[in-house]
Amino acid sequence: WMSLPHFMIQKNMVKDKSIKIIEYGKDLGDISEKVYKSTAIVDTFWAGQELQEWQSLYGVSAECIKIAPDILSDKSFVDKIRSLKPDLYVLESISFNMNMIVLPYMLDIPYALIG
Hints:
Elements: E1 2-5, H1 6-10, E2 21-24, H2 31-39, H3 41-46, H4 53-72, H5 75-84, E3 89-92, H6 102-106, E4 111-114
Parallel strand pairs: 1-2, 3-4
Helix pairs in contact: 2-4
């Protein structure tokens, strides 16, 4: 099982049909596009300007913090995970994703961090 935002499912990002998807964030739109727009990472790159790594990382992190409550309060998403009764929930340990660590706590599921 893998959790993916709606916009990635629409773009058919997972080609392996053996992977089962739990969708979230239908109302969030294209999260990547929001991050690119709010941080101007792409515009800065194409303008030939030097990226300020810490500033870019801060912008990405701020955008992720904004959307975390929407993901964690998505009842349908949380109920789907709850109904699976997983033995272990695995989270990427990148800094932008750490606010999602709340999810296994909410559902009383042991978790592991990778990455």
